[in-house]
Amino acid sequence: MFWPFRSCWDENENMIIINYNYLKQKHINNFFLSFVHPSL
User: What domain of life (predicted)?
Assistant: First the structure.
C-alpha cells in the first residue's frame, strides 16, 4: 500500500530518534562528568 505522507513521516520519525539519542547521550555525558568530577 502506498502512503502519500510516508516520506514525511519517516523524516519526522528520524528526527525524533535523533533528538532522543542526542538528549540521552547528553544526559549520560552530564552524569558521567558529575561522577568523575564531583566538583562540577
Answer: Eukaryota
pTM of the model: 0.39
Phi, psi for residue 38 in degrees, rounded to 5: -60, -25
| Cell numbers that stand for 8 in this block | 514525511
* pLDDT tens digits for range 14-37: 777 777 778 788 877 787 777 776
Kindly list the distances between the CA atom of residue 22 and the CA atoms of 14, 25, 26, 37, in Å, as whole numbers in the listed order.
12, 5, 6, 22
3-state SS of 1-40 is CCCCCHHHHHHHHHHHHHHHHHHHHHHHHHHHHHHHCCCC
